[in-house]
């Protein structure tokens, strides 16, 4: 809560400071369907301290966004390899982007902490000249995207590509980093680049050489890891390493049939002589089926239960039969075991009771006197008569 009053004047001051330094305004004219490249150079944002100063020693980073929005419009991309190198705004506007777009670019000087704002007014218009229905896209593996955005390498690409195409005016339509199309950042090994997709358009048809490179036969060879069919001399090879397996050709010279607008009917089918409606189904009573399905198993289960109960409860061989079948001696033996066990149990329940007399060491059962035994009972014969 307390932070708000502190921050608000600061923010306002910052914005006023940005607005006060009268923002430079540049008007640019991108064209629908053609590549647009704008270089963000240190020199255009910060006047260098002295004329002899070495520009690359200044570290500047940029932030660009559509006016009133936090980010760039969908068609425009921003890239900068390092703060010492220029930044690029590039992209290919589509017909929906036609009109006026204002891009605000803030440059931060990383050495002096200066900031400068620049406004780019983009007036996006329709292309002039002939249509470019023949479009080809090449994957250049030997370059990063910043290396083909400046005009020199871009025009060199077109010039050398002209050797492969029927003579005609070639134009750059789109440039995309391979990283934006699912490519991977290469290992930091000398000579490995991210790769860049370059889309070129022309009014003149593809040469047979290009057609062959993009033919299904070539793709089949590529899928097996073999080089594609390149019937002509690769004029690009001296400057650009093009992946001939990833060439795609688009021929827009044949206009696509316009999508027919579906007409809405009244929702009622017209009379169709072949339409055979399903016959009326007769009502069926499923009650008996259901009852049979449920009751028969229930009855069987009940019957089995009753049978089992009868066998278990009524046909049990009783104790009487067991007792009769057992000899008396066994019964007595068993009974004494039971009695003794019972007595032991009772003794265990109350351990305070005096020891049973029979267990005392010197106890005469008949006289009750307590004397140490005079005879060693172990030596007295059990049956005295036999002595
Ligand atoms: C340019 O390429 C990018 C990336 O592939 C794509 O999103 C964009 O639609 C293309 N622009 C045009 C005008 O084709
Ligand atoms: C190149 O094309 C092949 C198929 O033609 C595809 O599998 C592969 O992903 C493409 N590579 C790149 C980097 O686009």
Would you give an account of this structure?
InterPro entries: Cadg (IPR006644), Cadherin-like_sf (IPR015919), Sarcoglycan_alpha/epsilon (IPR008908), Sarcoglycan_C (IPR048347), Sarcoglycan_N (IPR048346). It is found in: Cell membrane, Sarcolemma; Cytoplasm, Cytoskeleton. The chain is an alpha+beta fold and 387 residues long. Among the domains are: 21-127, Immunoglobulin-like (Sandwich); 129-254, Alpha-Beta Plaits, CATH 3.30.70. It is built from 9 helices and 11 strands. The chain has a 4-stranded mixed β-sheet with strand order 1-7-6-3, with no helix packed on it. A 4-stranded antiparallel β-sheet has the order 9-10-8-11. Strands 2-5-4 form a 3-stranded antiparallel β-sheet. A hairpin with a 6-residue loop joins β4 and β5. It is elongated, with a radius of gyration of 52 Å. Residues 1-20 have low confidence and may be disordered. The structure holds 2-acetamido-2-deoxy-beta-D-glucopyranose (2 copies). The site of one 2-acetamido-2-deoxy-beta-D-glucopyranose has 7 residues, from α6 and β11.
Question: How is the topology of this model organized?
Answer:
Elements: H1 3-20, E1 24-28, E2 36-40, H2 42-45, E3 60-66, E4 76-80, E5 87-91, E6 99-109, E7 115-124, E8 134-140, H3 145-148, H4 151-161, E9 170-177, E10 196-202, H5 208-213, H6 216-223, E11 242-251, H7 287-313, H8 319-325, H9 328-349
Parallel strand pairs: 1-7
Antiparallel strand pairs: 2-5, 3-6, 4-5, 6-7, 8-10, 8-11, 9-10
The structure holds 2-acetamido-2-deoxy-beta-D-glucopyranose (2 copies).
């Amino acid at each position: 809560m307390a932070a708000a009053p502190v921050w608000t004047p600061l923010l306002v001051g910052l914005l006023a400071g940005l607005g006060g330094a009268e923002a430079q305004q540049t008007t640019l004219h991108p064209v629908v369907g053609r590549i647009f490249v704008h270089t963000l150079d240190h020199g255009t944002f910060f006047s260098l301290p002295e004329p002899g100063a070495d520009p690359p020693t200044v570290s500047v980073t940029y932030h660009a966004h559509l006016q009133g929005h936090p980010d760039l419009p969908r068609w425009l991309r921003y890239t900068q390899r390092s703060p010492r190198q220029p930044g690029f705004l590039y992209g290919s506007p589509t017909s929906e982007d036609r009109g006026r777009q204002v891009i605000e670019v803030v440059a931060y000087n990383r050495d002096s902490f200066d900031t400068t704002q620049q406004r780019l007014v983009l007036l996006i218009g329709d292309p002039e000249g002939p249509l470019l229905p023949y479009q080809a896209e090449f994957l250049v593996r030997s370059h990063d995207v910043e290396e083909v955005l400046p005009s020199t390498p871009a025009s060199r690409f077109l010039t050398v590509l002209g050797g492969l195409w029927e003579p005609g005016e070639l134009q750059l339509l789109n440039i995309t980093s391979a990283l934006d199309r699912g490519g991977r950042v290469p290992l930091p090994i000398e000579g490995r680049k991210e790769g860049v997709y370059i889309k070129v358009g022309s009014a003149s048809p593809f040469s047979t050489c290009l057609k062959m490179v993009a033919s299904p036969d070539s793709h089949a060879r590529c899928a097996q890891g073999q080089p594609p069919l390149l019937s002509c001399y690769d004029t690009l090879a001296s400057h650009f390493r093009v992946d001939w397996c990833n060439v795609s050709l688009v021929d827009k010279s044949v206009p696509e049939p316009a999508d027919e607008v579906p007409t809405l009917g009244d929702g009622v089918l017209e009379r169709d002589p072949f339409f055979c409606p399903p016959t009326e189904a007769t009502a069926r009573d499923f009650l008996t089926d259901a009852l049979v399905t449920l009751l028969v198993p229930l009855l069987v289960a009940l019957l089995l239960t009753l049978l089992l109960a009868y066998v278990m409860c009524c046909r049990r061989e009783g104790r009487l039969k067991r007792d009769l079948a057992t000899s008396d001696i066994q019964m007595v033996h068993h009974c004494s075991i039971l009695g003794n066990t019972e007595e032991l149990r009772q003794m265990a329940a109350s351990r305070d009771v005096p020891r049973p007399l029979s267990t005392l060491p010197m106890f005469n059962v008949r006289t009750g006197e307590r004397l140490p035994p005079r005879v060693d009972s172990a030596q007295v014969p059990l049956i005295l008569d036999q002595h």
